[in-house]
Design goal:
By secondary structure, the protein is α+β, with helices and mostly antiparallel strands. About 40% of the residues lie in helices and about 35% in strands. The strands form 2 sheets. Strands 4-8-9-7-6-5 form a 6-stranded mixed beta sheet. A 3-stranded antiparallel beta sheet has the order 1-2-3. The protein is elongated.
């Protein structure tokens, strides 16, 4: 998934290299265009890599902490015990409050059409919406939701 997200940045860098060898522009304009392409490509690469490297879920004691890049959400693990998973995700991620969404990658805070806050941490093809009783919902990949359910179940059975 990470390589798929980095493809646009690679295309921008290839365009910059092609522009460097193109002889039809004056040097100052060429340098400016190459700089813009490289800055945009670097920013895209950095944000994608940061999101991939800093996304994690910690379950310690009675608290679950979800990290998605710059964004973080905390909730009691008891809120996840009876969280119902549905497949209706599309409308829940339409309005970004403090997050990002790019070709299947969703991270950060969103608002659903009813005004309820939604924290998203998904990058796969099977995102699910988990309704919790902690004031916000979660959007996770199906496999992540299943692993969290197993962790919460084993934590509560101790």
């Amino acid at each position: 998934m990470l390589f798929q997200e980095l493809t646009p940045a690679a295309v921008l860098f290839i365009c910059a290299i092609g522009l460097a060898f193109y002889g039809g522009l004056e040097p100052r304009k060429k340098l400016f265009a190459i700089a813009i392409l490289c800055v945009v490509g670097s920013a895209t690469s950095a944000s994608t890599a940061m999101l991939a490297l800093r996304s994690k879920i910690d379950i310690n004691g009675g608290t679950a902490t979800l990290h998605a890049g710059f964004w973080k959400a905390k909730l009691p693990t008891a809120a996840l015990v009876n969280a119902g998973a549905t497949e209706e995700v599309s409308d829940s991620l339409r309005k970004r409050k403090n997050g990002m969404s790019s070709r299947g990658v969703n991270a950060g805070w969103f608002e659903d059409p009813n005004g309820k806050r939604v924290f998203a941490l998904s990058a796969g093809r099977t995102p699910v919406l988990l309704t919790t009783n902690s004031g916000f919902s979660l959007v996770l990949d199906q496999s992540t939701a299943d692993e969290i359910a197993q962790c919460v179940h084993s934590e509560s059975s101790r």
